[in-house]
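Batch manifest, entry 17 of 40.
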Amino acid sequence: MVEGFEHKLLEMASLAGKLNGFTATGEAGELEGLVVDAGSLYDPEEMSNDAPFEPTNKKRVEVGMPLDETVVCTVGLGLKWSEGDEVVKLLVKPKVVLYGALW
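Output type: structure tokens
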């Protein structure tokens, strides 16, 4: 049973180690959790696509359908390190699901 979760457990342990090392340096600032609002357009520099999909040539029939690159929801919390209003480092990108993965 553990074999099925081994990849996720290793990823969590790695991220926890990075977070511990970063916070143990004693740098001034604070950690902030990040989520992406539904309806935002996907930005690969700021987000991670948790459900990649192949672009297609399909035409949407209904008017008002969102673009494939529109965020449906956040499925994984992101973390950033900031000092005041200035973001010093994006530690973990928030994971999102896009409309293109649903159709």
